Amino acid sequence: MHFSAYLALTDDDARRNYERYGHPDGPGATHFGIALPSWIIEKENSLWVLGLYGLVFMIALPTVVAIWWYRSSKFSNDQVLLDTTQIYYYFVHKTPMMVFKRALMVLAASLEFEKGHNPEIVERPTDNIELPQLMKQLPNLGEKNKERPLCFAYSIKARSLLHAHLSRIPLPENTLDQDRLYIVKCCPTLIQEMVTCVSQLIMLAHAGRIARLPSLETIEACMKLSPHIVQAMWESNKNPLMQLPHINEDNLSKRRPVRSIEHLLSLSGNDRHHFFKNFSEEEYNDIMVVCRKMPHISMEINYEVVDDDDSGVFTAGAIVTVTVNLRRRPLGDLYEHHPQEVYRKREEDRDEEEKVKKPVSGWKKPQPKKGGKSKSKSQPQKKRVITSRREDPHADDKKEKSHSQNAMERVEELGGEEKGGEDTDEDESPSHSDESVADEADTESHREEKTNVDDDAEWERFQKGLTKREKALEGKSKVSHSVHCPYFPEDKQEYWWTYVCDRRKHMLITAPYMITNLVEQEEVQLKFTAPPKPGIYTYQVCLRSDSYIGFDQTKDIRLDVKEAREIPTEHPQWQECSSNEEDDDDNHLGKDDGEESEYTTDDDVTDDSDGE
């Protein structure tokens, strides 16, 4: 200690270290500590600290986790009550053929609208006065239905508010209108859950696990609920112009009927102004702005059997992959330059699709024209075809003579070259060898080009697979385009359903896939099993909007199903291996001429010599 003080007084470096670090030798070892209150480490408070630790980590934390688990176990992945899902399953199984109003009644029975399951639901004393007055204005409400829970008070209230919403009846702002906004806001998620339940029941019925098969009309009635609730329109109101601002049934002109929003945009400017003559200039501009922002979806379909040698051949029981490519554009971009020509072309395409959909009876024979002239005209055409295909009987002899003459001429030319061409090199090859070399080069180049094309196709498939995996890892986006829906309480994004169905048998072939990220272009793959019996089958690829009315599309796909290929009992590689093994055995046994087997003995050799 004295020595350290002496150093601090005599040595400048030691004094400097003492002033900076508190010791003449410099910085010491690093020390770490935990900043805890002093009362925690005091012996008098040890029992209190232990009790607090046990209360927090042994009682409070497990209680919070148990409450969270109990509440989360009541909901599905889409935050829909599992009890509500059970209600959907029950009523869909009870009524396999469900119409629009019946689906609306089941939707209103969701337990999200009941106060015991949802604390956000408000029950007011004024409901006893306002609800009966509202129910008198609503025909076909079905309030006398005795099915549970359709007859419960919460279900009747929700049903009345949904009927008023679809009829666009004004409600008291501070009471029933607030309840309407909350119920309408919950409907898209509940409808998506209802569609999922119906599709699962249909797949279970196909597998033979349940007896009753829900019809295709049931799931499409559930899908129709979403756009009609978003746009506040009944199913019976089939005029899509009601989705536009400032338009209702009273001020809509009925002199010149307009079938769709595309038809409206296809009109000339004067015709549109004449159609909206009862509207002001601002209202007309608002209507046209919304019309131009409406979606136009171009749908391209490709169907094949993936991972097969011939993807275009559909065998019985094969997995068919339907690839749906969707491209979205605003209607204003499509009808900007030549609206009437675009609309006329689209109407012709729709007429052709409808003609294709009509069944054609294959047993009817083509009837000949009157007067019997068709036979007389068709016969000489057949004779011409036959004479054109008839071969000359001396054609082979002529061919042989021509070949022999060419050969003789070629020999004479070569002989002349040998006689008169002493200075020519002997290594020069004839012209036919040059042609063969050129042909070989062409075939090699063709093979190289083919391999390059195959490599490029494989690389493109690999890149598509990577992009699909990246999208799957990133998660499904739920942002597309905002929907014009003034009667919906919040911002609604534009979603689409796509699925494959069979209209003739009223069957759903693939489960509906919901597209939530169609901004400009999107690709969807739908897979199903080909029918077990050979034949020609026609299916429909459907596209439905959950936000707009009148923008649905349907396209036909036709499968020519062949018989399933027989599975080979032995693989060709195995047969090659077995044949190679037999050859090796024969070689080892010495069956070849001039070779002796290694398994022969000396006695055999002597016997052979004696025989000779």
TrEMBL record:
<feature type="region of interest" description="Disordered">
    <location>
        <begin position="340"/>
        <end position="459"/>
    </location>
</feature>
<keyword id="KW-0143">Chaperone</keyword>
<feature type="compositionally biased region" description="Basic and acidic residues">
    <location>
        <begin position="388"/>
        <end position="422"/>
    </location>
</feature>
<keyword id="KW-0256">Endoplasmic reticulum</keyword>
<dbReference type="GO" id="GO:0006620">
    <property type="term" value="P:post-translational protein targeting to endoplasmic reticulum membrane"/>
</dbReference>
<dbReference type="InterPro" id="IPR035892">
    <property type="entry name" value="C2_domain_sf"/>
</dbReference>
<dbReference type="Pfam" id="PF02889">
    <property type="entry name" value="Sec63"/>
</dbReference>
<feature type="compositionally biased region" description="Acidic residues">
    <location>
        <begin position="593"/>
        <end position="612"/>
    </location>
</feature>
<feature type="region of interest" description="Disordered">
    <location>
        <begin position="568"/>
        <end position="612"/>
    </location>
</feature>
<dbReference type="InterPro" id="IPR014756">
    <property type="entry name" value="Ig_E-set"/>
</dbReference>
<feature type="compositionally biased region" description="Basic and acidic residues">
    <location>
        <begin position="340"/>
        <end position="357"/>
    </location>
</feature>
<dbReference type="InterPro" id="IPR004179">
    <property type="entry name" value="Sec63-dom"/>
</dbReference>
<protein>
    <submittedName>
        <fullName>Secretory subunit</fullName>
    </submittedName>
</protein>
<feature type="compositionally biased region" description="Basic residues">
    <location>
        <begin position="366"/>
        <end position="387"/>
    </location>
</feature>
<dbReference type="GO" id="GO:0006614">
    <property type="term" value="P:SRP-dependent cotranslational protein targeting to membrane"/>
</dbReference>
<feature type="transmembrane region" description="Helical">
    <location>
        <begin position="47"/>
        <end position="70"/>
    </location>
</feature>
<dbReference type="GO" id="GO:0031207">
    <property type="term" value="C:Sec62/Sec63 complex"/>
</dbReference>
<feature type="domain" description="SEC63">
    <location>
        <begin position="73"/>
        <end position="559"/>
    </location>
</feature>
<keyword id="KW-0472">Membrane</keyword>
<dbReference type="GO" id="GO:0008320">
    <property type="term" value="F:protein transmembrane transporter activity"/>
</dbReference>
<keyword id="KW-0812">Transmembrane</keyword>
<feature type="compositionally biased region" description="Basic and acidic residues">
    <location>
        <begin position="443"/>
        <end position="459"/>
    </location>
</feature>
<dbReference type="GO" id="GO:0003723">
    <property type="term" value="F:RNA binding"/>
</dbReference>
<keyword id="KW-1133">Transmembrane helix</keyword>
